[in-house]
From TrEMBL:
InterPro entries referenced in this protein's UniProt entry, alphabetically: FAD-bd, FAD/NAD-bd_sf
Phylogenetic classification of the source organism: Eukaryota, Fungi, Dikarya, Ascomycota, Pezizomycotina
Keyword Flavoprotein: yes
Needed co-factor(s): FAD
Protein name: FAD binding domain protein
Domain of life: Eukaryota
Length: 414
């Protein structure tokens, strides 16, 4: 979260919070060619290291990212990839296999596809941007004159400014304050997954990346109703395959109402059981995982910002949402980061529009316009991603899934 201040007697605030979605905004706010908009970034984590990390595909949002991040910083994007040694081509192909037979079903063609490791990418975006670590937002108040918003943190600190952009992830506290605890809850769908990050012997690691397997990523749908993913997560140490980390999961049907009480060991055992009906590389990568290897269970969930009951009052444009805070979605279509960057791009344009104007109506209009576009685009993607997650687990409908029919591009660009 960020609090900008303008010179003069009246403090003005652009408050943004969160990480990857928000950091491009700050990059742009920092840009010397733009109006100098002061800000502060707040993050609940105590430091820049967190235990959960994953990798994400950046594809259609490269263009807005270029508008936000100066070239001398963005030029390091190649180094933030899961394997910085593999050059990124103008087009890319993500192979989708039949997990039972190994037959190639389709290659999902994409524009330039950066496979980013979240921690490295975030560090790149944070270059030169001060972050207030260990600040967990818990409440928001507004001045009676319609001008200011105040963010309150659990440690008793607070900060005041002109706009607060909540980019605080899928379980956003800002969203909770805006629509209430019940309405802000993410909605589970009838699938779950278990995220596994594993290292292997040199021989096994080389096998997992050797032909016919894709050295970076592949996905498989199984006719029995499962979806498997395997990708490289960390290939930094080019000479030591035993130091490479692989990211893999098999997602499976699980009724939305079911509370999953499996222990870590039971999650691993269940993933191994599912993998036993898959061909390689899934069969082997799960077989080689240790029975007590720490894994991360994840129910598939989303939150559609376009539902009427999810509408929030932006208090004359003083508060809004972006990224997963606004539209958490299921991950199989690989879209959340791309939309988060697009949000950063559009909210930045909105801030530029009202920043130098003293009229409160300008801010209300600009933020209203941002929300109109973001809610329509994000809401559509939440629904498409859900359809995609359902179809990929239903053999009769796999070919109808949005990713197969339309690829990974933004729906309106197809
Ligand atoms: C396994 C997996 C694979 C994915 N693959 C892809 C992909 O291929 N392509 C793609 O586009 N997307 C992908 N995504 C989605 C993508 O990771 C998210 O959409 C993206 O990270 C959202 O960024 P964000 O900044 O909005 O939220 P986050 O990355 O969740 O960051 C939110 C931040 O806010 C902080 N925070 C939370 N609450 C508070 C609070 N109260 N006060 C202060 N700080 C707070 C959190 O600590 C966190 O640092 C994937 C997601 C997963 C889980």
């Amino acid at each position: 979260m960020t609090i900008p201040r303008l010179n003069g007697s009246r403090p003005r605030t652009g408050t943004t919070k969160g990480r990857s979605a928000l950091l491009p905004i700050h990059r742009m706010l920092n840009n010397k060619n733009q109006a100098q908009i002061p800000y502060t970034v707040y993050e609940q984590d105590l430091t820049n290291t967190r235990k959960t990390n994953w990798s994400m595909g950046l594809h259609w949002a490269l263009a807005p990212l270029r508008e936000l991040v100066p070239e001398n910083i963005l030029s390091h994007i190649q180094e933030t990839q899961v394997d910085p040694h593999v050059p990124t081509h103008e087009t890319d192909r993500l192979p989708l296999y039949n997990g039972q037979t190994g037959e190639l079903i389709k290659e999902l063609v994409s524009r330039k596809f950066y496979r980013l490791r979240r921690d490295k990418f975030r560090n790149m975006l944070m270059t030169g941007i001060p972050v207030q670590w260990g600040k967990q937002l818990c409440d928001i108040t507004y001045s009676p004159d319609g001008e200011r918003v105040t963010a309150k943190f659990t440690d008793g600190c607070e900060d005041t400014g002109r706009i607060l952009v909540g980019c605080d992830g899928p379980h956003s506290s800002v969203r909770r304050v805006l629509v209430g605890d019940e309405k802000a809850k993410v909605t589970p769908i009838d699938f779950a997954s278990t995220m596994c990050f594993t290292q292997h012997t040199r021989e096994h690691a080389l096998f997992l990346r050797a032909s016919p397997h894709n050295p970076l990523y592949q996905v498989a749908a199984h006719p029995d109703g499962y979806c498997a993913w395997l990708s490289l997560h960390d290939g930094d140490d080019i000479d030591h395959p035993e130091n490479w980390t692989f990211f893999h999961y098999i997602s499976y049907p699980e009724p939305k109402s079911q509370i999953n009480n499996r222990t870590n060991a039971e999650h691993v055992a269940y993933q191994k059981q599912l993998a036993s009906i898959f061909v390689d590389p899934w069969n082997s990568v799960f077989k080689w995982m240790k029975p007590n290897h720490p894994v991360w269970y994840s129910k598939l969930r989303n939150w559609d910002p376009s539902l009427p009951e999810h509408r929030w009052d932006n208090k004359l444009g003083r508060v809004t949402l972006a990224g997963d805070a606004a539209h958490p979605m299921t991950f199989q279509r690989g879209q959340g980061l791309n939309h988060a960057i697009m949000d950063a791009y559009t909210i930045k344009k909105a801030i530029d529009c009202f920043w130098v104007s003293p009229e409160l109506g300008k801010r209300a209009d600009a933020v209203g316009e941002y929300e109109k576009e973001m809610i329509a685009r994000g809401g559509e993607e939440v629904r498409l991603s859900e359809q995609n997650s359902i179809a990929i687990h239903d053999w009769r409908r796999v070919m109808e899934s949005p990713s197969i029919k339309s690829g990974l591009a933004l729906e309106r660009d197809n």
